[in-house]
Each structure stands twice: as C-alpha cells, then as structure tokens.
Amino acid sequence: MSFAGPDFVLAIIAISTVGWIINNWIRARHGYALEDEWGGKTPRADDQAMVALREENAVLRQQLEATHQRLANVEAIVTDRGFDVAGQIEALRRQDGRSAL
What we know:
Strand content: under 5%
Number of strands: 2
Structural class: mainly alpha
Helix content: 55-70%
Radius of gyration: 33 Å
Distance between the termini: 95 Å
Number of helices: 3
C-alpha cells in the first residue's frame, strides 16, 4: 500500500469520520454535550417532558425521604422494650367492658 496515494488519504478521512461519529453517539447516549467539527460543544436540549420528569422526581424523592423518617419513628416505637401493643389493646378492651376475642 502506498502511503502517498489518494487511497491512503481517503482511508484516513474515513477512519477519522467514523471515529467522530462513534464518539458523538457515545456522548449522546450518556447525556454529554456533543462536539461539532470545529471542537465546539453543542449542549443537550431538554424538552418539556424531561423538565417535568425531573421536577416530579424531586417531589417523589422528598416524599420518599419523609416516608423513611416516618418509618424510622414507627420502628423506634415498635422495637421499644416498654411498648406492648397487645397489652394496650387488651387494656382498652377491659376499659370498654369488651371481652377478648
């Protein structure tokens, strides 16, 4: 193969173009800004659906955090050695005059 011929030049151009396309495909797939042919960056355009999903995600994360805190409180109450649910229910039944089932 001759390194001075037009075939070699075209091969270099083809390899470079394919590499650039693969690079941009990987960047787009993972959400990074794309590169143009002059080295500049093209930021990813977020559409309305993505913005709405991010807002909903933030709200759901806050609700989940609140639920975790409430669950931790319930676990602390239930695992407390002085806490006897069955005994308290029976005491309330005796107070009401009902018999145990």
